[in-house]
Amino acid sequence: MDPVMILIIGYVVIGGLLASLGAHLLPVGGAPAAMGTATGIATGTVQIMLGAVLTGLFTAATVATFTNNILLVALSGAIGATIMLDVVMFMANILYAFGCGVLPISGRVDVDPITKEPQAEYKTPQTDGHGVPNVVFVSGTIGGFVGGFGGALMYFALLNYAHFTAGTAAVASFSIFVANAILAAYNIRGTIEGFHDPKFKRLPKSMIASFAISLLAGIVVVLAALGLGVI
Amino acid sequence: MTVTPAVEEEEGEAEAPKKGLSFKFPYDETEMALIAGIPAAIITIFTGLPAVIKGVGLLLALLWGMDSVRKTSKYGLGTGVPSIGVLGTGYGVIGALMGLAVVEYGAMPALGIYPAVLVGALFMAVLGLVSGYFSNNEKYIAMKIPRLERAMMELGMAGTLAMLLQFSIVTGTLAFQSVVDMVMETGVIAFMFIFTAMAMFHPYNACLGPDERRERTRMVSIEISGLLCIILGFAMLVLGTSPWGAWDGLSLIVFGAIVWFVFFRKFIKACMDECWETVGTGLIKTLG
Asked: CA B161 to CA B213: how far, in whole Å?
């Protein structure tokens, strides 16, 4: 077996696992957040992750046109995804605070694990928190970074090791990323706040599924590259 | 508002489906999968066919995907119906790439027959089965949805067939290089991705509720396929790839427009007939 094949499969698997981890770190609010009765961004895991990884792929693809350094490409993807998510979380906070008049409050913990600010007293009864409080913002930033890094890593592997064209590599890595993010979304089931959420403990189960799917997807990509005779 | 006695309501329910019988497939999900999947697979192999026939194949493949989405989402996914449609499309793109990579084996380029592309659909069936197993198994994600394995397998296959049919419509062949040049690098893939996902998830997402009816939901899928055919027809005209000349693209646009108009009208009519009461706002003239 050619070492290049192992490299491709390895990077696809790492990218898939990072996609799964990133999806678990995001502040997903879903429909309740749209009504201001849950913490996070008011849409599903899939949509948030799609937006983040697409932005990440744009920045990664731009950087990949003038460098062959894998770390640089992956980090640029991570930065793109992080900026996108941070802007969305910040704007969500502005809208919640000045539009709805609710405080950014975590619904899952009584005290913010990072800043030690009290949360429970400010929470509206019968709701699950509001907006994007500090700990959730930090968690979302890490999630965007990790997810974007994974997506860009896959893109780099498909572009430079499997020798796909830029467009094909982007579409293929995007598709593999999406499959992994959706499996993670099924594991989350609805809403999650970040690493301090009790649901975060379910992460290993999703990781195992993600590993199997990414491994198979990596094998499919390698077979496709073999069929084309480019590696 | 008057309260109707329960008996009358039941009678009304029993009669209700008869009003919308204008479009009905009397097939259950398994029969539908066979009826849609086999012709779609056969049309995928023959790339020399006119675009309209490929459009019919695309319509069948998307209908099959929508049926799979519907039967899975009935149980509640917990993360919204769109997720599983996007999953199917994502698998479809990977499977289509896989199929295109092995396209040369057993191909007859003179006749435009490429049977090896179906390898991609088989690989995606395996991938879908594995992901369904992991999603449903108690030890892993534990979604506990009956027959999720089969639904994910069908979604992967339907997505792959739909993607391959669209590639075949736009490029007129299934050679990898031409697909890369005309679909991936021109950005037509973005339209394909989102419309395929839309045709699969949007019908059930829009129609779900206590009175959801399979025939009515399927009309939306066919209508979106019509819109997709119009876009693909324009792409064909601009790229000028068809061996049949400009008429191929034009006929696909006309086909798409007719399909869209007929089924959109049917869907609105079915909704009007089956709903309790329609209160017009006067903003848009409805078909009444």
From this structure: 26
Among the partner-chain residues B101, B141, B143, the one whose CB lies closest to the CB of A223 is: B101
Instruction: Indicate the average pLDDT of chain B.
Output: 82
ipTM for the whole complex? 0.88
Confidence (pTM): 0.87
> Running DSSP on this structure, what letter comes out for residue B181?
I
B284 vs B182, more confident: B182
State pLDDT tens for residues A117-126: 888 888 888 8
User: Which residues in B lie closer than 8 A to residue A180 (C-beta atoms)?
Assistant: none
Residues B85-135: tens digit of each pLDDT:
888 999 999 999 888 888 888 778 777 788 888 888 998 999 999 988 988
What is the Cα gyration radius of chain A?
A: 19
Q: What angle do CA B221, A41, B156 make, to 5 degrees?
A: 35
Tell me whether residues B86 and A224 touch, CB distance under 8 A. Answer: no
Chain A residues in contact with B131 by the CB 8 A cut-off are 179, 183, 209, 212-213
SS3 of chain B: helix, strand, coil, percent, to 5 = 70, 0, 30
Alpha carbon distance B239, B234 (integer Å): 9
- Chain B interface, best mutation among A5, A8, A173, A182, by max B CB count within 10 A: A182
